[in-house]
Amino acid sequence: MSYDATQVQWDAPVPSVVKQFQTPALVIGGIGAILAIVAAVLDFRQFLHAYLFAFTFWNGVTLGAMVLLMIQYLTGGGWGILGRRAMEAATRNIWLMAIFFLPILAGVLLNKLYIWTDTARVHADHHLHQKETYLNVPFFLGRLVFYFTVWLVWAHFLNRWSLQQDQSGDKKLAQKLRNLSGPGLLVMAITMTFSNIDWLMSLEPYWFSSMYPLINMVGNLLSAICFTVACVALMSDAAPFKGLIRSKHFRDFGNLMLAFTMLWTYTSLSQFLITYSGNLPEETPWYLNRLNGGWGYVAASLLVGHFMLPFAVLLQRQVKDPGKPLIYVGAFIIFMRMVDLFWWIKPTYDAGHGLHAAEHLSHFNITWMDVVTPLAIGGIWVWFYLRNLQQRPLLPRHDPNLKEAFAHGGH
């Protein structure tokens, strides 16, 4: 079978197998939002603890998709062309994440989330006072505006020029997208690094790690590729993908999932080994809080579920070639990614702070708010995502690498 552009159903709608998730997502998001508001009224501080975890995950999927999109423009890989619309749909949710940040912003302004927002405590603590030049509310707000402005601008032009390419077929737009993606990856690396420091690592300002932002960025990319693969695999039996997407494409998807799983493991293990070998009182409490009091079981589940199982499964060619099994593998990895972020964030609030934090170790606990907030944000995010997906053709018709992408699959 050869590639014939005249036989491709370019204007085929989003398959019903994907659209059917839109209404349930809105219902789940709506109910979750109502319960989240109730949670905020009952205990705003506890609500913020759960909300930060939920926001971090879904914001990570959004930003990870934009990074993957730019990587695809630079590499020209066939895997990315087939998943481009799925990635673009996710990037157009960045404005939504800016709105979802408002409760966290309220927590910062009301001194409910970070200990460094407490001016009296900062002035009384030498270690916090030393970091006040960076960790202060006005500078935090300025960086926040900068992050979302940069992300929104890059997402705007990535989507705008892609749509113009679809409409006009101008080959110069492909070069413009590549030119935008090169510096864009550097900008994303910088902004994602500092946003991770601001929003997550500063939860425990006595502790620091040079690997921490990188681990989270790799996790974001892994979540995004799993989400994209699941979406494409669901649509593979319907137009316009039917007959065009083949096992070789899914093998590429599976190999990418495997690569990012291994990279996440490498960076996570590196941080642990560096901390273990250093054995410094300002570093070890972070792991002590996450390996005791029941949290050790969660850590063990991450070792098995975030690395061992996906690694063993994704090595199997018979899992990757059919495509459909990757939906379940991707969903499982996404779940473990949420567990990973929960393990990162939740112990912070139950443990002591300071150089002697290890004397007040956290104990594992999970509340109904920890379940409601991810569902609230996730349901609304998925609804807008599917709405975005329906606004454009599922294949970039005039991309200069499209024919090569299909030829890669054996056409």
From TrEMBL:
The chain crosses the membrane at residues 25-42, 48-74, 94-117, 137-159, 180-201, 221-241, 253-274, 294-314, 326-345, 365-386. Keywords: Membrane, Transmembrane, Transmembrane helix. PANTHER family: PTHR43044, QUINOL:CYTOCHROME C OXIDOREDUCTASE QUINONE-BINDING SUBUNIT 2 (PTHR43044:SF1). This is Quinol:cytochrome c oxidoreductase quinone-binding subunit 2.
